[in-house]
Design goal:
The chain has five helices and no strands. By secondary structure, it is an all-alpha fold. The longest helix is centred in the first third of the chain and has 29 residues, at 2-30.
Length: 115
C-alpha cells in the first residue's frame, strides 16, 4: 500500500509540473496575465503536493523520532505554501473580473499564519 500511495503522489506531482509548464508556455505565446496567474496557482499547488509527498516518504521509509524543530519547520513550510495558494488563486480569480485585491482577500491570505 505504501508504494501505491507514493506512486499516486508522484503522478500528481508530475501532472502538476506539466500543467504549470503548459500554462507558462501558453503565457509566453499569448501574453495574457490571467494565464500567468493560473500557471502560478498550479505551480504553488504542485509545491504543496511535493511537501506532502516528501512528508509521506519520510514517514513511510525513515524510522526516526521527529524533533520539535523539524515539526515546526514542516508546519511553517506548509503554511507558506497555503499562503501562496491563497494569494495566487486570488490573483487568478480577480484577474478574470479585473479587480484589485481587497482587504478581505488579504485577510484570507494571512489565515494560515493565524491558525
Amino acid at each position: 500500500m505504501k508504494h501505491i500511495d507514493i506512486f499516486i503522489h508522484l503522478l500528481c506531482l508530475l501532472t502538476g509540473i506539466i500543467t504549470a509548464l503548459l500554462g507558462f508556455l501558453l503565457y509566453l505565446k499569448y501574453r495574457v496575465k490571467v494565464i500567468r496567474n493560473y500557471a502560478f496557482f498550479i505551480l504553488t499547488t504542485t509545491f504543496t503536493v511535493t511537501a506532502t509527498t516528501l512528508g509521506n516518504y519520510i514517514n513511510y521509509f525513515v524510522s526516526f523520532q521527529t524533533s520539535l524543530v523539524s515539526d515546526i519547520i514542516s508546519h511553517f513550510i506548509f503554511a507558506l505554501f497555503l499562503t501562496l495558494i491563497y494569494y495566487t488563486l486570488s490573483l487568478f480569480a480577480l484577474g478574470i473580473i479585473e479587480k484589485k485585491i481587497k482587504s478581505f482577500i488579504q485577510l484570507i491570505v494571512i489565515f494560515p499564519w493565524i491558525c
